[in-house]
């Protein structure tokens, strides 16, 4: 009933704690969000035959806010689930892709919120517009413009796997980006580092990892390509003058290497075998936030994609007290570090819970399950409440002013 719905929403309309020093630091700036396909955190600072796999990301980690305990929280909707998390601060669904099952719901997504703050919004992606039902969902989320495959010159030479390669994707996006009304909110979705991680020989700038598992082996070469694409994009941004006028948020969308590749991954990580605890560590994806004029630092807060929306809104000086969101500001001292994965596993400063086992987060060894019990319920409630909102389309009852 509506009464129940209002109760849920009332409870969730919370004034998420801020970091007073950073609140509004990027007020009125453009926002550029980049989704990194299948990029896990373990590739940072990794070397193959003495060469860095991610030379650009390693530098970016030093010139921006780099979150080194940040987790993806996606389910079957993969890239689209990550988009949903980041822009709504709601969980994706336990099965299926929310972009496909609930694209006509009422949401209060980033592009919509920013529109009321004078922003124009656009999304850029070199694949067909209907993949993941994006064309429908993006309208719902308030995007003013979707630059999909049809806006790009895609040829046999400049595409591979799912579509346009990342380097020409960013190159060809620049004129569109420079033409957008400012301030803008622009999202870019990369594509080349996608399973099965294939690459033309001329794009291969690092040796494959030497292991008897082609997927893991090739993964490093497509990550290396993506890293170079990002380096070039940042260069374009600097040349165009947009770099100094824009907050840039870069996040990994989800894992690229599944649990099936455990043996090869054990070798990559220099371990004899992997435990469920190790598997959770592998769900870490990078998050970088570059703010013009700020040097940044490594932020140790444990968090996930659900936290990006309130974090970013606060940087832009936008209040979140009338917004329903499950995440909290990663820069705040009161950030809630309980990070819930879509399958009910969770991580906080002290514990990692997975496979019905409670691990010490410090030592990675099983501890008494009782230690995890209070959080097991909290994690479950959190997922259930979010699911109720999505399945019941409850944000219809939210009056935003
Ligand atoms: C497709 C791209 C990849 O357009 O977003 O999708 P994924 O399979 O990673 O969800
Ligand atoms: Mn993806």
TrEMBL record:
<keyword id="KW-1003">Cell membrane</keyword>
<protein>
    <submittedName>
        <fullName>Phosphoglycerol transferase MdoB-like AlkP superfamily enzyme</fullName>
    </submittedName>
</protein>
<keyword id="KW-1133">Transmembrane helix</keyword>
<keyword id="KW-0472">Membrane</keyword>
<keyword id="KW-0812">Transmembrane</keyword>
<feature type="domain" description="Sulfatase N-terminal">
    <location>
        <begin position="29"/>
        <end position="318"/>
    </location>
</feature>
<comment type="similarity">
    <text>Belongs to the LTA synthase family.</text>
</comment>
